[in-house]
Amino acid sequence: MADPRRRIVGLAIVSACGALLALAGRNPGPSVSGPVEPVRQPATIAAPDRLPEDADRDGVPDLRETQVALRFAPVVVHDREEAVYPTSVENFLDRTSLWLYDDACTPDLVVPLGPASQAALFRESAPTCGAGDPINSYGVRSRGKQRTFFLADVAPEHRLGSGGADGWPTYAHVYRNEQRGLTVQYWRFYPYNDRFPYHGGDWEGFHVVLGPGDSVLELALIDHTDILVRSPSAFAWDSAEAGLHPLVGVARGGHTTVQLPAPDGRRYESWRGTIVNLGEKTRPLNEQIFLRYSGLWGTPGTFYQSSGYWGPAFNETDLADDGFVTAWCRGMLHPDRQIDGIRECYPDRESR
Ligand SMILES: [Ca+2]
Ligand SMILES: [Ca+2]
Ligand SMILES: [Ca+2]
């Protein structure tokens, strides 16, 4: 099978003017002023190097990354009343589609770009509605969610995710930290944030920060606006199969990771399911090139908070003014590292 990362993607010209649509619930308005330039895919997406021992080029042997991700993989406890469980990126992409959005247009510019897949997330657009710069979906991050690519909310029947213990994947990010150890991030992806402010595409996660000898220094929970740092003693730990597995709870509907699980909650021992090592944004592993996608994972809504959110490598929690993606790179050794001009911890550029 052809490696999608090595595929040369042709220029798929989309007739944007003919494809202007208004989303359900939006006021379509009378017309768009001025021509809209075509949207096209980039010629190539950089292919990861095929080094067997450190393919994501972060200085950590990939086998060691896998071992440590398994060893500290959490017990994730959902509320008994939870309705929306995690799903896989692939399942979600099969049910959504890619769009371009600019709310400076009148009416809002909303252009369908067709079905989504990991290989079909990468597009670029000429300037729209008075903005002078082009944007793309593989590095340009829209701070206000006003001019961006997005993945449309999936239909209600596809928002439930994989209930219970039938194997939804846990996505891991492992890297060297400034404390002479490794940081292990665990991410879950939910199709929908089923609580006010409701929005599509809900990435949630937390970090286990290790020091020398894999001693656990702290856990960092990705909350709504801040990253909450907690002592390991604040958690219960399960030592099944020679691991050290923290028990974390999931807030009902909004899915934020919390330190006190519901006592009667539904346990998921994530190491018994699939753990996917994402690699690094600059060098994704295991075909997970969605890491490079810088658009939204849900439809833009009326408000910032009711619009789709970003993926792990562009996450908004504790985002620094200079664009440093704290939720992806907190405590990283060499946070300025880059490969082929792509910086691991920053978007290439921001749009409105
Ligand atoms: Ca590595
Ligand atoms: Ca890594
Ligand atoms: Ca959420």
Folded structure, characterized:
There is one protein chain. This protein has 352 residues and is mostly beta strands. The protein contains 3 helices and 23 strands. The chain has a 6-stranded mixed beta sheet with strand order 13-12-11-10-9-18. Strands 2, 14, 15, 16 and 17 form a 5-stranded mixed beta sheet that branches. A 3-stranded antiparallel beta sheet has the order 1-5-6, with no helix packed on it. The structure holds calcium ion (3 copies). One calcium ion (CA) binds at residues 56, 58, 60, 65, 174-175, 279-280.
Q: What is the number of domains?
A: 1
What spatial form do the alpha-carbon principal axes imply? globular
Question: What fraction of the residues are assigned to beta strands by DSSP?
Answer: 25-35%
Rg, rounded, reads 20 Å
Number of helices: 3
Which stretches of 5+ consecutive residues score pLDDT under 50? 1-38
Find the structural class using helix and strand composition.
mainly beta
Number of strands: 23
The ordered H/E elements are EHEHEEEEEEEEEEEEEEEEEEHEEE
For the termini, the CA-CA separation is: 39 Å
